[in-house]
Amino acid sequence: MVTGSMKHLVQVEPAREAAAEGGAPSAGPTYRCAAGGNAASPPAVPGLECCWDIFRLSVEKCPDNKMLGRREIVHGKAGSYTWLTYKQVYDTVLDVGSAIRSCGVGKGGRCGIYGANSPEWVISMQACNAHGIYCVPLYDTLGAGAVEFVLCHAEVQIAFVEEKKIGEMLKTFPNATKYLKTLVSFGKVDPGHKEKVEQNGLSIYSWEEFLQLGGKEKFELPPKEKDDICTIMYTSGTTGDPKGVLISNKSIVTIVSAVDEFLNNSNEQLNMDDVYISYLPLAHIFDRVIEEVFIRHGASIGFWRGDVKLLVEDIGELKPTVFCAVPRVLDRIYGGLQDKITAGGFLKKTLFNVAYKYKQGNMLKGNKHEEAAAMFDRLVFTKVKRGLGGRVRLILSGAAPLSRHVEEYLRVVTCSHVLQGYGLTETCAGSFVSLPNNMSMLGTVGPPVPYVEVRLESVPEMGYDALSSETPRGEICIRGDTLFSGYYKREDLTKEVLVDGWFHTGDIGEWQSDGSMKIIDRKKNIFKLSQGEYVAVENLENIFGQTPAVDSIWVYGNSFESSLVAVVNPNTQALERWAESNGVTGEFATICEDPRAREFILGELTKMGKEKKLKGFELIRAVHLDPAPFDMERDLITPTYKKKRPQLLKHYQTIIDGMYNSMK
């Protein structure tokens, strides 16, 4: 690859040769994105020093704008969205902040938030921001064991809890009560719960009671610095205990400015008329950052009702302009659209396919999506747009890789920009994002966002060379003000990943000729087979995951075996179509147990592996079909849908042993 062709990047430091044996590996050049003036940090904004200022400045600028909305439930039915303005939220935040302070929690204290996204969630977070209190969010999907670990590890003194989660919180007693002294319900308090809480020496308040507590005494807001910690965000942890990622005001202010700069450069600026649907967990950095961006612009955030089956209905009512998703949600949208087209009859299917091919062809030639097929947009694709409320102009995918075919399909049919991003909790979410109207970036995460520096570091044991003149590959390393401040109480782990200012992500990337990044592997998910061959399992799962008949796949091998096996969640429609064509009858779960179905899926995986030129030892030799998707209920995936490999092995151990025994 000719470095000069990387048009979306600017080189700021040269490459580094490998040190003497046993020393640091070689590293490629350091780059920033070319857009936005190639600055290392955002321009100073008067009065903008911390997360609290993001909200405060918007209250001053547009106090009467709609800020937080939820659907009103009347006689058991969901009605339209009702809204709190920025000024109303601000006044409530001051009351909540005063109430927290009256409970003895001040600057540098710890406040937990446990529950699904809601106006109360954001109000509690802003109260923490106002008083310099560390906000410690907990995924609403976490069980009592993980909640207890976080509460104790972070030394949480007060916790805001969704009403239906209070019972789960009580399971952490008495261990969590070492530090925890106050619980606040987002709704009411059950008398039985109140009794148990008070038996353990704690106080518990309903939301209304707590607001009244805050109205009795007012507290001055303490000064807050850029380098102050504003949140301890616990990573969901694919192995071992969750790690507490310390995120400063500076990190969030910088990433919010970076997202703004990116949108401005893409001519997709946010404004106060934009609307966002809040359904991805606020306990995850992806949604937290996006909501901070919306708040900065005085825009509106509407909350879903917490039920994935009702999400489409909530979207239809809210009519958001920006939609953020994880790949699993977009995969469902893709699957649903495919089913509708298949069921629509010959004429509709033919018209759709003609429209798709025509628009796709024009977009691949470089036409903007809104200009590629205006007539077909009106006749065909506007129906897809209406399914997302009719106003979505920007779809952002993050938290895991989005399949290339799904990304391309949605770019064509949704009449919106579909952009894929990449980042970690430690980098304050988005470090890379693909560019609008740029089909050459399909399958990549685009160039770095503004104010972030990136380089690749060679991984010799995996054959990745960051100095390759043709295809530089290596571990993605990131530097800049968006980085976290360390792992709470784990200086040892901090030193492992933060070296000379560079955060080592553990992900393997490959620079593309235009300066976009493609994630190809995971450094840690590598093991040896019995004959000494190294297997990069995440890379294989990404490849096999492109098989249309496969929804999800977990590949397994170890150093005592010479081949790989896999557990597959088959695609329901694909497997049922195959069964119908091959005379296999029964429910989906019954079909999955049929040896012929396993043979079919194994054949499809082998075909994909050979098409992608995998080596013989990288092909799957046996499969088990599980009709139930990998889920959080069985502790097989994290809340961001990353596979928990030790737990997968424990759950499927008997099946894995059976597959290996059947091959001997």
Automatic annotation (TrEMBL):
PROSITE patterns: AMP_BINDING (PS00455). GO terms for biological process: phenylpropanoid metabolic process. Transmembrane segments: none annotated. This is Long-chain-fatty-acid--CoA ligase. Keywords: ATP-binding, Fatty acid metabolism, Ligase, Lipid metabolism, Nucleotide-binding. GO terms for molecular function: 4-coumarate-CoA ligase activity; ATP binding; long-chain fatty acid-CoA ligase activity; trans-cinnamate-CoA ligase activity. The keyword Lipid metabolism applies. Its cofactor is Mg(2+). The keyword Ligase applies. InterPro entries: AMP-binding_CS (IPR020845), AMP-dep_synth/lig_dom (IPR000873), ANL_N_sf (IPR042099), LC-FACS_euk (IPR045311). It is an enzyme of class 6 (ligase). GO terms for cellular component: endoplasmic reticulum; membrane. It catalyses: a long-chain fatty acid + ATP + CoA = a long-chain fatty acyl-CoA + AMP + diphosphate; (E)-4-coumaroyl-AMP + CoA = (E)-4-coumaroyl-CoA + AMP + H(+); (E)-4-coumarate + ATP + CoA = (E)-4-coumaroyl-CoA + AMP + diphosphate; (E)-4-coumarate + ATP + H(+) = (E)-4-coumaroyl-AMP + diphosphate. Residues 71-488 form the AMP-dependent synthetase/ligase domain. SUPFAM superfamilies: Acetyl-CoA synthetase-like. It comes from Zea mays. Belongs to the ATP-dependent AMP-binding enzyme family. Catalyzes the conversion of long-chain fatty acids to their active form acyl-CoAs for both synthesis of cellular lipids, and degradation via beta-oxidation. Its EC number is 6.2.1.3.
